[in-house]
Design goal:
7-stranded mixed beta sheet; globular; 6 helices; alpha/beta; 177 residues; Maf protein; binds inosine 5'-triphosphate
């Protein structure tokens, strides 16, 4: 059983879809202001390991938009909570290059072990309008091919997503020991 420290139910359900044996623990940790998701995840790992005794994971994700030079990136949560999907669409009003990438960095550790990181990414494009009701966060405005991620079910999202990739890497690592 792995403790997944997150306040985001959607993330937890995606992890459960891949790992099965995982428990959501919303004990919180400080998300530092840093330049990379890796730094945020490594710093967060220190805190959650002090709070929970056992195998523990956290995952930090972000949306990086090419024409905005990677914005919102490490500020994705703040930007989502403030300007949201409508705000992102306004920033891209009239912009032709709509390429964007979701990145996921997952931290995992067991007592007495150095934390390790697993990563995943998913390239796509920012849609003209939000579509779909699945997923969470930026999913309704992130298109891969014809569909936005919010138009996919959890299994389909997990097959292609940044988080699906980082979690599957953790799973293979766990099984390979
Ligand atoms: P934690 O408690 O795990 O930190 P969070 O929702 O704050 O949950 P992040 O900081 O990793 O998670 O996420 C940054 C923002 O990006 C946040 O607003 C999410 O809703 C959004 N986001 C993360 N993963 C996403 C995904 O797979 N699809 C759409 N939006 C996503």
């Amino acid at each position: 059983m792995i403790y997944f420290v997150t306040g985001n139910r959607g993330k937890f359900e995606e992890a459960q879809g891949v790992l099965g044996d995982v428990e959501q623990r919303n004990v919180g940790y400080a998300e530092i202001q840093a330049d990379t998701l890796e730094e945020v995840a490594l710093f967060g790992m220190k805190e959650v390991r002090e709070k929970l005794d056992g195998p523990v994971m956290i995952e930090d994700a972000g949306l990086f938009i090419e024409s905005l030079k990677g914005f919102p990136g490490v500020y994705s949560a703040y930007v989502f909570d403030t300007i949201g999907n409508e705000g992102i669409l306004r920033l891209l009003d009239g912009v032709e290059d709509r390429r964007a990438v979701f990145r996921s960095v997952l931290g995992y550790a067991e007592p007495g072990m150095e934390p390790i990181l697993f990563k995943g990414e998913l390239w796509g494009e920012i849609a003209q309008k939000p579509r779909g009701s699945g997923g969470f966060g930026y999913d309704p405005i992130f298109e891969v091919g014809e569909k936005t991620i919010a138009e996919m079910d959890l299994e389909e999202k997990n097959t292609i997503s940044h988080r699906g990739a980082s979690i599957r890497d953790l799973k293979s690592w766990l099984l390979s020991r």
